[in-house]
Amino acid sequence: MRAAIGLISAALCIAPALASDDEQPLTISRVLDETTAADWRVPAPENTVYLELDSGRVVIELAPGFAPDHVANIRTLIRNGYFDGAEIARVHENYVVQWLQPDENRPLGEARERLAMEGRITFGPRADFTQLPDGDVYAPQVGFSDGFPVARDPQAQTMWLAHCYGMVGVSRGMEADSGNGSSLYVVTGHSPRHLDDNITLTGRVIHGMTELTTLPRGTGNLGFYEDPADHVPIRAIRLAADVPAAERTPVELLRTDTASFRRLIHARRHNRHPWYLATVDRVSLCNVPLPARLTPP
Amino acid sequence: MRAAIGLISAALCIAPALASDDEQPLTISRVLDETTAADWRVPAPENTVYLELDSGRVVIELAPGFAPDHVANIRTLIRNGYFDGAEIARVHENYVVQWLQPDENRPLGEARERLAMEGRITFGPRADFTQLPDGDVYAPQVGFSDGFPVARDPQAQTMWLAHCYGMVGVSRGMEADSGNGSSLYVVTGHSPRHLDDNITLTGRVIHGMTELTTLPRGTGNLGFYEDPADHVPIRAIRLAADVPAAERTPVELLRTDTASFRRLIHARRHNRHPWYLATVDRVSLCNVPLPARLTPP
Q1: pTM over 0.80
Q2: Inter-chain CB proximity A286 and B221 less than 8 Å
């Protein structure tokens, strides 16, 4: 048995499970049932971050292909023990959850204090990109690359990560280079795409989102907790590479460069589940599920 | 002092408050600071529903202009006491919260058991509509009407409510007419716009969203709680019109047919807050905040 997680379900009723034969419509469930092992990938342990809360583990996949300097800095901060005593200080309804190191004097060690913004890369002709056909309000093209939701400008030949639900970014102050990974945020609500290109995204939560989204909301300015005593302690932030294999969370992700993923997009666009009355035949970037599953122990 | 609620904040740092003079950029905060009493409205008590939870009150504005039969049925169900003992049975991450009457034999009284789908109306030339200029993935036109996010088809001269965060709809089974208002859902995550035209929307949560979004997630099929003992009790569902004036929640909503609301859209589109590095100059329907505030006692 594999436990599918992280899927956005379509129906608002308990629909009968559909048998997976050719006479049945192409639903997301059917697409997933018909995937093979080759459709799934295990994120590299060096790119996988564990945020350990009292309630459970949040798993993040970093995106060094888009933000290499920030990812390197985050790895350095983690391995320096910078995050010992880190806390979730901000839980902003329909927007973000943010954590930080409350000890402002804690040294960054070998990590850099300031980093130029990253996230917009120049793509070559062979860059992985599964394009969506229905356009986007914010960018000329949108789709998926290396498992992440992205926007593209074909004229400038640039591609950048998009602020969908679950994306992880680097908090910064007023200056463009004032972020360094010592404080990160996760998008927990409707996609704030106006942040694209204004702040560096570095990854995506691939497991454990509800550990963040069920936290009490901060009632202070910007959703910060007003009383530091309300901060949510973080037991540890670790790279999976530094955790014994037996203690790792066995998350697998559906590849986004496969025929199966294109079938999933098709299923989402056309909503062939019999619960639907009207065909939609459209899909927006942040409404495409990025399936994850736990492999059995 | 008025307490602004429900705003989506832009900055990911604590930015200094901006003074409200002409040399300052047009931010959403400034637009709100410069509104007058005429920019705000109080929803009609007959269109206002209170969902009373142990943790607090959720306030919903019904949309009889779009779904008159469903709104009438919901009023009848409320006044019949149909919802006595109702419970939140489903909390689906990044999707919906849904409540229902667990006693399936409870009579509907004078309420109708089946209702034809509603939500798509024919609009006349004078129908209230504040259009957004940047397009939409799902519909030919989008904007706001009577305070609600809507989509329009100018050729067919139809307009319908859109599934943005906070919208309230009528759960149904497989048949189009199988909903009646006895079970309602609230959109709590990224806008599931593929539901537009597939299920009847009847209103929007205007206060108290966090009472719903912080609930433990259901781990069963479609986010239902697996154990009925986990259901979240609802103390009462009432119309504000049936609640003594002194016990009503004094919510006011920014009108969407005003110059102030158009200024707010402008502020959101152009992101003139100095924290932003890149102008966006675009906005999608569900990223426009619909401000609410509590009037002082």
Answers
A1: yes
A2: no
